[in-house]
Amino acid sequence: MSVNVPACLPDWAQEGKSCPYGSKSGLLLGNWTWPDQGVTWIHYIGAFYSFMPMLVIFGILIYGLWTRGVRELFAFIFQGLTVVVMTAMKLIIKQRRPVGSCSVTCGMPSGHTVATIGTFVWIALEVWAAKCMEPKQKALVLGVAGFASFLRRPC
After folding, report:
1. Which of 10, 14, 89, 135 is least surrounded, with the fewest CB atoms within 10 Å of its CB?
2. Taking a C-beta distance cutoff of 8 angstroms, is the pair 106, 93 a contact?
3. What tens-digit pLDDT sequence spans the chain (155 residues)?
4. Which InterPro entries match (predicted)?
């Protein structure tokens, strides 16, 4: 879902100019700014990570079709709700994206951050409800998931 609010438009878009930082690339939920020059290996890694929210949603959908489980259906709905919550928050907060972005939608809250926190909450609920795990195992799983979520923070 994209939220195009006039208050969020960068100066170059308000003036009717094209993005001076590169071009907007990507598919569906995975969008990024691809620079016109100075591309390094880190840009390719960033482009790959931009697809993570979309891959999680498609992975849950495919796994749900495979297992036909209610838990997978709820996980898919939960991920969809995070997108709805993020879109509503963008409409309320109306903050521009950082300089260097070619996207003209609102930037706060970050969709990747919302997806990461939502996925961590889902994992935490799954671990909390698990009857087959000892408390030490639960702490280990949550610690690893929390650490992985911390590593994905953009700043």
Report:
1. 135
2. yes
3. 555 667 778 888 888 888 888 888 777 666 777 888 888 888 888 778 777 777 777 888 888 888 887 888 888 888 888 888 888 888 888 888 888 888 888 877 777 778 778 887 887 777 777 777 777 777 777 676 666 555 544 44
4. PAP2/HPO_sf
Look at residue 1 and tell me if it is in a domain.
no
Q: What is the DSSP string of the chain?
A: -----GGG--HHHHTTPPPTT-EEEEETTEEEEEPSS---HHHHHHHHHHTHHHHHHHHHHHHHHHH--HHHHHHHHHHHHHHHHHHHHHHHH--PPPTT----S--SS-HHHHHHHHHHHHHHHHHHH-SSS-HHHHHHHHHHHHHHHHHT---
The tally of domains found in the chain comes to: 1
Within a domain: residue 102? Answer: yes
Q: In sequence order, what are the residues at sequence separation of 6 or more whose Cβ sits closer than 8 angstroms to the Cβ of residue 30?
A: 50, 51, 52, 53, 54
Bridge partners of residue 32, in order along the sequence: 25
Q: Is residue 120 within 8 Å of residue 145, measured between CB atoms? A: yes
